[in-house]
């Protein structure tokens, strides 16, 4: 039986980490990034005063665009994983404001069809910007 007890530790640790890192934000999706020029065209008719001062904003993918109702919504986002190990900044959560529609943004996403397209600043807060796409967990605030 001592062997059995000995081998419980890895499982216990796994459980602890699973709980810690799953304290979840809700939904799972993907994020790409876009670079300047930034224009909040679909949401704010190019009114650049709508950009948050910290540059943490995003364009909505079709899945969350919600026929324009997503404009101005705030999302908590964290990087879950990517193709290249070490891409995510572990434990970092950002809050972004939706300012545009990814499908029609002036500056094109690094990857088409993602859940949201983060500003380069926002993407760089949670992941290595060398990645074109990351898996994310997100939740509307
Ligand atoms: C970001 O990713 C690139 C390409 O994989 C790598 O060369 C670089 O060292 C990474 N940067 C950091 C800060 O991890």
From TrEMBL:
InterPro entries: Expansin/allergen_DPBB_dom, RlpA-like_DPBB, RlpA-like_sf. Gene3D superfamilies: RlpA-like domain. It holds the Pfam family DPBB_1. It comes from the Eukaryota. Residues 40-141 form the Expansin-like EG45 domain. Keywords: Signal. Residues 1-26 form the signal peptide. This is EG45-like domain containing protein. It comes from Nelumbo nucifera. The gene is LOC104592343.
């Amino acid at each position: 039986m001592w062997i059995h007890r000995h081998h419980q530790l890895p499982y216990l640790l796994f459980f602890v980490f699973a709980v810690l890192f799953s304290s979840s934000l809700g939904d799972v999706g993907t994020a790409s990034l876009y670079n300047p020029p930034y224009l909040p065209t679909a949401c704010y008719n190019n009114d650049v005063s709508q950009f948050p001062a910290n540059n943490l904003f995003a364009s909505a993918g079709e899945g969350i665009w919600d026929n324009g109702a997503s404009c101005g919504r705030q999302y908590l986002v964290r990087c879950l994983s990517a193709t290249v190990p070490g891409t995510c900044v572990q434990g970092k959560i950002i809050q972004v404001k939706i300012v545009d529609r990814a499908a029609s943004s002036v500056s094109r996403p690094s990857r088409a069809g993602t859940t949201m397209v983060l500003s380069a600043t926002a993407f760089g807060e949670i992941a290595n910007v060398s990645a074109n796409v990351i898996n994310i967990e997100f939740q509307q605030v």
